[in-house]
């Protein structure tokens, strides 16, 4: 066991605010550490600092060789075994051993890497990472492209791994199953919690409740100080006026000791100033009180229910490519107004293909019957959206969207205002996904068809989506691998 130590770490990209500010952290290399935090807070940046790809102020003591996942693949046309051995210092038999521990056949090693599914590629590179037991794995979102079964397999594998690691993921169920410590980036701070993500979340809720209570007390105290200072100031000003009498009363004049009144009003004025100083100090002392409380603004969903009771019928549908059926048996279901129907199943089971068939865009053969109510307006979230181009203004005009609604949802999803003028194709992959999602939310519609909407979204964005769907209760057909999300929003489940 070794100790990894971060001392007085400060880091910012040129021209931007600090991601980390004078942070100190010590953890053991045998810990199974989940790294979480909102998008843009610096999770991947922290991994790159630990592995020496970036440098900031302060020091990072890393006694082990960092092993970063996903490794770059120079030639994806090679067989997977060649890619794996190139990405690792281990022998092929050691990589095969790790795949066996993932309950995955090593047959896939003898297929071209580029022919493997995203989940299979993930398992090959993870096996290459862990096959050597001498380094310290840094895993950057290994749950991408994994279906529910794959996530369970990898979570179990990591839970029983002989070595520690750091893993970034936005899947709470995965983190709970795979990790024993949680490191969260909260507004320039690194917060370490003993236990998995649920343990962190419980501790965070208790801390936030305490800070909210302190903030309420602070507001009460500041209000009282402000009122007292205002009252004293008003009294001293009125006493000062008494020295000169009432200018509106004929023949009026001061007939009492103006020196005494002036001195007393000066003393009261000084008290008022002292109260203002006390108030300012109280505000300054408490400015950072809620700095780690995450404010999650509710999203707006432009749902407009259709008058039809049933919007979609799917009866005995079978899809096939080149005579090969996708489903083991024909699929049937109906989607009524207010239903949230989840299509679930492993990678390659045909979920996206079924949505394409419903929209009349499937390129293979279709048998059976699909009836989609023609008057039902539809709003999509797709896995790929190469046609989202240009500025947000142009995009909103092309799609017939409210520009203000689009911007409001993008801001609530965490895209900085500075990026609103950036052409969509130049945004990061995560930001492009948020544009696709915000456009769907802003579209006046009676039916949502969402294909893996949680890709690239952090836990807070996932909570925003869950909340707005539960509040609005729209009619929706959705595919997703995150079981917590499916359980939270769905009223029907169809397994492929």
UniProtKB/TrEMBL annotation:
Stretches assigned to the ABC transporter domain: 4-212, 312-496
Asked if the Swiss-Prot or TrEMBL record annotates the protein with the keyword ATP-binding, the reply is yes
Entry keyword annotation includes Coiled coil: no
A Pfam family matched in the record = ABC_tran
Which Gene Ontology terms cover its molecular function? ATP binding; ATP hydrolysis activity
UniProt keywords (A-Z) are:
ATP-binding, Nucleotide-binding
Can you tell which superkingdom this protein's organism belongs to?
Bacteria
Tell me the segments the record calls region Disordered: 228-250
Among PROSITE patterns, the record links this protein to: ABC_TRANSPORTER_1, ABC_TRANSPORTER_2
Which residues lie in Polar residues bias regions? 228-238
* NCBIfam families according to UniProt: ribo_prot_ABC_F (NF000355)
Identify this protein by name: ATPase component of ABC transporter with duplicated ATPase domains
UniProt gene name? uup_5
């Amino acid at each position: 066991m070794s100790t990894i130590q971060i001392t007085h770490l400060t880091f910012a990209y040129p021209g931007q605010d600090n991601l980390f500010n004078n942070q100190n952290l010590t953890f053991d290399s045998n810990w199974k550490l989940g790294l979480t935090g909102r998008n843009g807070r610096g999770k991947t940046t922290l991994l790159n600092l630990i592995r020496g790809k970036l440098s900031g102020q302060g020091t990072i003591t890393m006694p082990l060789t960092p092993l970063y996942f996903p490794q770059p693949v120079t030639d994806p046309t090679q067989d997977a075994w060649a890619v794996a051995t190139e990405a690792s210092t281990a022998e092929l038999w050691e990589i095969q051993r790790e795949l066996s521990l993932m309950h995955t056949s090593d047959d896939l090693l003898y297929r071209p890497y580029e022919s493997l599914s995203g989940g299979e590629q993930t398992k090959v590179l993870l096996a290459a990472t862990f096959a050597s037991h001498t380094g310290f794995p840094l895993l950057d979102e290994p749950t991408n492209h994994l279906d529910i079964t794959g996530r369970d397999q990898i979570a179990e594998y990591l839970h029983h791994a002989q070595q520690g690691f750091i893993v970034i993921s936005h899947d709470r169920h995965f983190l709970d199953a795979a990790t024993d410590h949680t490191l969260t980036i909260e507004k320039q701070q690194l917060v370490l919690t003993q236990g998995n993500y649920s343990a962190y979340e419980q501790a965070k809720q208790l801390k936030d409740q305490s800070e909210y209570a302190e903030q309420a007390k602070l507001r009460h105290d500041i209000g009282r100080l402000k009122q007292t200072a205002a009252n004293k100031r008003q009294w001293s000003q009125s006493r000062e006026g008494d020295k000169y009498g009432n200018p509106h009363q004929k023949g009026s004049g001061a007939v009492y000791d103006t020196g005494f009144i002036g001195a007393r009003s000066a003393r009261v004025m000084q008290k008022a100033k002292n109260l203002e100083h006390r108030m300012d100090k109280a505000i300054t002392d408490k400015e950072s009180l809620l700095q780690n409380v995450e404010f999650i603004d509710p999203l707006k969903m432009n749902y407009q229910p259709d008058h039809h009771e049933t919007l979609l019928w799917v009866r005995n549908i079978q899809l096939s490519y080149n005579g090969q059926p996708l489903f083991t048996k024909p699929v049937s279901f109906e989607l009524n107004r207010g239903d949230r129907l989840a299509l679930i199943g492993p990678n390659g089971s045909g979920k996206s293909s079924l949505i394409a068939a419903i929209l009349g865009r499937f390129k293979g053969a279709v048998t059976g019957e699909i009836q989609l109510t023609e008057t039902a307006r539809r709003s999509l979230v797709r896995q790929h959206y190469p046609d989202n181009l240009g500025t947000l203004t142009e995009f909103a005009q092309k799609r017939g969207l409210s520009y203000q609604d689009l911007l409001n949802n993008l801001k609530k999803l965490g895209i900085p205002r500075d990026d609103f003028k950036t052409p969509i194709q130049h945004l990061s992959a995560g930001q492009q996904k948020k544009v696709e999602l915000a456009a769907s939310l802003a579209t006046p519609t009676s039916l949502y068809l969402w294909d893996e909407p949680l890709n690239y979204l952090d836990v807070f964005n996932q909570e925003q989506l869950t909340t707005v769907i539960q509040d609005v209760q729209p009619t929706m057909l959705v595919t997703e691998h995150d079981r917590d999300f499916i359980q939270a929003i769905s009223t029907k489940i169809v397994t492929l």
